[in-house]
Amino acid sequence: MTETPPLHPDAAAPTDKRVDELLGRLTLDERIALLHQFTPAVERVGLAAFRTGQEALHGVAWMGPATVFPQAVGLGATWNDELVRRVGDAVSAEVRTMRARDDRVGLNVWAPTINLLRHPLWGRNEEGYSEDPHLTAAIATAYTRGLRGTHPTYWRTAPVLKHWLAHNNETRRDTTNSSVRPRVLHEYDLRAFRAPVEAGAVAGVMPAYNLVNGRPNHVSPYLRAHLRTWTEQGLLVCSDAGAPSNLVDSEHYFDTHEEATAAALVAGVDSFTDHGTDSSIMVGRLRRALDQGLITEADIDTAARRQLEVRCRLGEFEEIGPFEDVQEFDTEAHRALAQESAEQAIVLLKNDGLLPLPEDARIAVVGLLADECKLDWYSGTLLHRSTPLDGLRERFGTERVTFAEGADRVRLRCDDGRLYVPDAPESAVAQGAEAALDPALLAGRTDLPPLTTTRDAGTELALIDWGEGVLTLRAPDGRYLSVAEDGHVRASAEQPGGWVVQETYTLEPHGNGHLLRHTGTGRYVSVAADGVKVADEGTVFSLEFVERGEEAVARAAADADVVIVVAGNDPHINGRETEDRTTLALPPHQDRLWRAARAANPSTVLALVSAYPYAVPDAHTALPALLWTAHGGQAAGRALARVLAGDVSPAGRLPQTWYAADTDLPDLLDYDIIGSRQTYLYFEGTPLYPFGHGLSYSSFAYGEPFVTRGGEALEFTFTVTNTGSRTADEVPQLYVRPLGTAVPRPRRQLLAHRRITLAAGASERVTFTVPFRDLGHHDVARDRWSVTSGPYELLVGASSEDIRHTAQLTVEGDEPAPRPVRTDGLEAAAYDEQRGTEIVDRTKISGDAVTTVDDEGELVYSDCDFGDDGVSGVRVEAAGEGVVELGETCVITVPATGGPYDYVTLHADFTAAGVRDLRVRLRGGVRLARLTFIARGTTS
């Protein structure tokens, strides 16, 4: 056997030289092959096979058992950067350990997701950290540092940030356009990505499916114009799954896949995730694009080099890998960290003194999530499991804790009898025990007998209504009714799950009964000779209620000293990847349960366990205590019990605003947080619970702050004292509010935060160092970042609304000035206000234009300086067809130009002088790119 040559004999050589030498040893076809997610080995140079993409959002996902930490939004709720860094460190250690056992485990991890939680109805709310760019950037930086590791040269894993850019909707997610004005782009969306990249622990980013300003993210000019300018380190841009094909197939942005692939490569995409493990399709497109002259070998080499740089950083090219001795998996430290992070993620929303619970309390724990430890799409398989019921019984004793789930108990009857779940044969039970480590295997099993019917009593099923008419049905042995590939209905699933959930149903009225529609297939449950299956035509069923869930809850509540109602969501149902929510309301079934508990026992606590906020104003008014936690991973139940018992004082803080009603929300697809007054930054209503909110079992006093200035930063110093009787954490938060500004600025904006632990009576001096740059905003008139001269108010407190002290600061910076439109003209997208418009792509490569949404819109440009002598005309650069109106008298008709990218320049008389606001109205399908003004007395 011929010995495989080393990848590079000189291990001391710089990374770029080692990569260049290896690149030079590869043929063109081998270099092209590197650009697919699954790259083949090149044995003649000792290059192993490699794949980009290992999900690791809150633990190693999809690769079997691993430590499961709280969901990302729960990690955000800890407001604890150092804790999250330790979580990232543990996850990266488990990635390396699992990689040593299974080479399918990848070292290029696609985590974290740092899309800002702008809108709480986004189905993937669970994946983000916060609605605030500062908090998101801080938590993301901490997690990526943990994933990267502390080795001075080599990376333990290579994190890729998701999803670039302005992505907050699953509804038509591959075809919708996020209209992002320049201020929102620079002040909001880009800020979340920039800090982690500048911190040096990020290997790359993944573009999102959607379009931004009319252009798909996978051909975004912002990759080059912004992302790659933030660091001198090479960044690997990995496409989202299937997105390269979307450029043609669903978005119709390019006519051919060769054009689309070339455009994505040139824009900066380096790794194409498309067509699964079959690389031949994408490799073929790249080769044909090269042959057609759409890309060059240099374009191929640039992307291939970025791939190899990441692999070099991971230590792949060393004779002895730098992390071969890592054996940290499901350690005692990891288990303790999972519990600590779950405890720190719990937010006490309200407490009228009912909590913490007395040691001798008789507790009823009730609700649909009371005995659940739910996982989401990006979870690993549980090695350990703790439900709220488990945790409370462990903490208070089994004899002091009673349980009622609150599911409706029903039988389903049809003309053939009642539905019946047959017993599983012993062989199938044994196989089920083996498959229990992977619940997905249970749902698809065909070795279990399908449901049938009987003339006897039939099987009593637990029916849970998760809201919006979506139901699950569960057999007495705990298995959910699921549909396998053969179409039969079986009690086979441990939990609802999978990319297409096969365990949910809806009831459709039909005659004197209901059809039971299976949501996964869209077909109807039908009784057939060979068992119950799904078919195009369904059997009509009637529901026989054995017991309503609220009846069982009321019985348990009446016999207890205190009731804990555990409500929330299943992360695979009604709000997940591919599916947005439609309401903030708690599902009616769960709403009935807490009301039944409260009616039977006023000492009722509502513990919400969910991936997103709810609007629960009635519960807030009626109940003495409420808590919220994201799904907390393997230690969720124990953590909740310890907080309820007072072993841990809660100190989690809300990472996003909890609104009081759906009417407080803008349209899901409205990305203009300034114009529609979104998030705590701009929201002018009264939230149910504000951003940063979270109560404690202790109390804290804030000392008078003082501010010092030096260099390019300010220091804000104050003292926090624990004035309570127990050790507890506090999270002081520093906000800024510009005073007297001419442009709309946030009501207040988070500048700094810190989670601290104080013993009873102890004090700590806290100093926040804030760069002056962070006080600024994007000046659309000059297209640059600006810190404006004037007064600013600094506010410190326990939440965005619980402000304890303020201090004023006068800043010497940029003087406010009108827009120099007479000399510089106006970019259409650089407006101050708008109505009925959206930003679209000026060309497929770069630039912005503005068009109407429903054939009519208006743009406002404030403080435009037309000069003392004024202007006498205007030139309009526009495409499409329609009308542009300036003021009351200037009307410019844009004839059909031939296409959306066929711009013409039209001239019209227009007079204006001095400083004034300019209103521009658009009608029809016109796309306005730019306005240029002609000074009075000139002819050109």
Automatic annotation (TrEMBL):
Pfam families: CBM_6, Fn3-like, Glyco_hydro_3, Glyco_hydro_3_C. This is Glycoside hydrolase family 3 C-terminal domain-containing protein. It comes from the Bacteria. PANTHER family: BETA-D-XYLOSIDASE 5-RELATED, SUGAR HYDROLASE-RELATED. Keywords: Hydrolase, Signal. Belongs to the glycosyl hydrolase 3 family. One of its GO terms (molecular function) is hydrolase activity. InterPro entries: Actin-crosslinking, BXL, CBM6, Cellulose-bd_IV, Fn3-like, Galactose-bd-like_sf, GH, Glyco_hydro_3_C.
